[in-house]
Amino acid sequence: MGCCNRRCGLIAGAVFGAAVAILGGVLIPLGNSVIQGTVEKEAVIEPGTTAYDNWVSTGGDVYRQFWFFDVKNPQEVLQHGANPVVLEKGPYTYRTRYLPKENVTHNANQTVSYLLPQGAIFEPSMSVGPEEDKVTCLNLAVAGAYSLVPKVLHPALERLIKSSNSSLFQYRTVKEMLWGYTDPMLKSLVGLFAPYNGTYDGYYTVFNGKEDISKVGIIDRWRGERNLRFWNDKYCDMINGTDASSFAPFVDKKKPLYFFSSDICRSVSASFEESMDLKGIEVYRYTLLPSTLASPTVNPDNKCFCRDPKTTKNCTLAGVLDISSCQDGRPIYISLPHFLHGSPYLREAILGLNPSEEHHHTFLDVEPTTGFTLQFAKRIQVNMMYGPSNVITVLKKVKDYTIFPLVWLNETAALDDETAEMFKRELISRIQMLEIIQQALLGTGVAIFVLCLIFYCVVRRRNNEAKLV
After folding, report:
1. Helical (H) or strand (E) element with 260
2. For residue 61, which of 99, 151, 210, 400 sits 20 to 30 Å off, Cα-Cα?
3. Rounded to two decimals, what is the model's pTM?
4. Quick one: angle between helices 2-43 and 429-468, nearest 10?
């Protein structure tokens, strides 16, 4: 009777262990389904969700750091045609993106529209000096007029340059160069980012993700249009992806992430590089590929971005993007800092450049479950073009078309400790707790089942041996 009770008890224990193991196994897909449903619900851009609260507000601090290229030999360039020698000077840091989205409108077609206010506040503690620091830099008015004014009118431009006592280079404060000054030749406001404060980026219209979570944050329209009007090409004028602040949840690292940047007037993609730990949170680091600004001879997709064969070496020049078509004709070229991934010609024409993959590449750190970008660094260099002239005195010694670096910026946001702890508490810890419960139930159930099965076999064997005796 006692042996029977032991065997029955062990069988019951094995059944119980199996049931516990099965429960743990069932909880894995069930738990994953619960997590997925919760994340997808909270990722929708509508009032009351976590995504909306973060999306409509300013979020974490975003800074723009500027490094200027200070010209050390302006007279040698003007008088003897020497290659410009530059020395990087910076950073001069400004806090940006501190204003919440405005004119937020929820549309009937599962989209939401908004304006993105622009502003910049100087941060002395994060800068090498005050905004009143001066740099010797390219004269924006002279370089701009050289490209915009037809050659037949260059004699008139020469008289205007001389009468205003202007030259190819000028000595200006950081504040003037960034945010504007009244140019003596043009008698109007000139600046790299003028006007900026009090202006807006947009109007943006993005999908809210309620109907299809895979489309959340994807830009449907920018400035009321589904396509750009800068490149005169269907492919190059496409608006792809989000604004890079977030992506659809459950990111697949095998697929690139697409985003649109109004700063460079085009869409780009970033590819997975590595998994990283960011304050205890696993993130996927995505970076721009060198092919993004490759010449059309290397990346044929870039053919429609080549605007002027004459200034781009018959479209063989790599590393620069002519965005004059979205800058009212101004000869602005965008590149990575110090012409990273650019043709050697660019660095040979300007001495003092030192491109570094570590310091000059663009990256996004994306939390894969939510698709939120928790940290990023967008690094862009602003350049202007000037060339030789037989008429304009300050350009007579120039030997070839030159794409001259003015400033490079690092727009960055880093995850602060408070937000990291909140993120881990609200999401990561809950997922980890569910996984622990799943594994504990599965492991305990299997252990009980195996032990009960072993003891059952031992008891049954001993019982059989006793009967034989």
Report:
1. strand 257-261
2. 210
3. 0.85
4. 160
